[in-house]
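Example 3.2
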Amino acid sequence: MVRDGFYYALGLCVVAAVVGWLAGPAYAIVPLLLAAFFLWFFRDPERVIPAEAGAVVSPADGKVTDVAAIELEGRPRRRISIFLSIFDVHVNRSPIAGFITKVEYRHGRFHNALSAASAVENEQNIVTVEGEGHTVVFKQIAGVLARRIVFTRRPGDRVERGERVGLIKFGSRTDVLLDPAADVHVRVGDHVRGGLSVLAHLPPAETGLAAAGVEREKGAR
């Protein structure tokens, strides 16, 4: 259980007690139900993290809404987008093991996280992780309801694959940006679970770098 759930639930229990005392027990039902919802929403189940080499695990629970080829800072990338509804676990996890080399928080709008514009225009936290010769970028993207992004690590921190690194409160989106040579195992419509579902496998470092070089050479022609 994420501690935020206790804070929300405790506050609502106090409200329920006051309302019940002033207006009668029946009126305390709504705040008590909301307290139960927050305890459920901020659940944080244990996950068995896949151990196979090169595996990239999902940073969040949710539904895969897009798998596309894009460019990031002039370099080709494979992007996997995951939409989190209010019914999903909202704890975020690192997709790979390695060191966090960059964390960039961008203020922005709060478009529906299902829209294409949300990937660029919405408020988001962009995290770069380097490990095993690869660089993986993942984004915590706020949605219409999600107005608070939490990230608990700093540049220079070592993270393990599937390690908890933060959360996004309420409906939101996460994007994972991979080497173009990554072998993607999910498709649009799939439901994934953070730290447990394997989104893709990264090739050996030398293969991944060579493929990226070929893609850049093609783009230059």
